[in-house]
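hey m, so remember when u said the tokens were messed up on ur end? i reran from scratch. heres the input so u can diff it against urs
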Amino acid sequence: TVSQFFHFEVSRKKLEPHDRLFKRYLARMPLFSNYYIRDLSLHSFDRDIDDPIPYAEQILTDYDFIGITERIDESLVAMMMLLDLEQSDILYLKAKGHGHFDDGGFNQTCVYVQPSFVSPGMKEYFESEEWHTRIRGDTALYKAANASLDRTIDEVLGRQNFQTELRKFLKARRLAEETCQDTVVWPCDASGTRRVVASGCLWHDSGCGFKCLDGVGMRFGAEEYTYKSGPWTNPDVSEKSASVSQSQSQSHVHLLLLP
């Protein structure tokens, strides 16, 4: 919510990030009400009528994998181990980070991405009953997905094995940032000038530096893993606890992660 406001309203439209404008932006954007429930549900969801909690529970059943941005590196490493992937399959370079320019797609111009922040007024609103009511389903789903990731690491992958692979991945990521950034001709240069021809990305500024990342991944290598699916307990997204239920067993692993 905050990053979207700063990206589209502050960075692109050059608006001042006042609390009044922020609240007005949220008011005219009903999509922020249980956004992930609406976006991820495979069934029609009416935010004005439907109770989001059953939809959150259904999402946990329908999906085997959903990503959590705040734990992106942990998520990627867990996915790598579950699917028997290699480091090169999950390495990435950041794009559209604050303090840099975007992909130049908006009006064919390069837009400087302003750093976002949460003001005291924003924080007060995020703690209000009004806001918590708007995101009730998303909150339950998010808590359950986090709990599922932790249980996947502890009960399926093994915390020690996971930490070993996470350390290797973070080391590979640091090397990738040092060596692969300069292999990409980004759509916008450091001065904000839009290049006629960009290269080194799979699409616009997505999947950039993939050839270099493959090399970094091969350098570090990844041990092969064979994890057999076993009994798994889905998180309970009941409104009271949104914690892991001990009564619902599945015959396969669910790694649930939310952006």
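this time it looks ok to me. The chain is about 45% helix and 5% strand. if urs says something different then somethings off w ur setup not the seq
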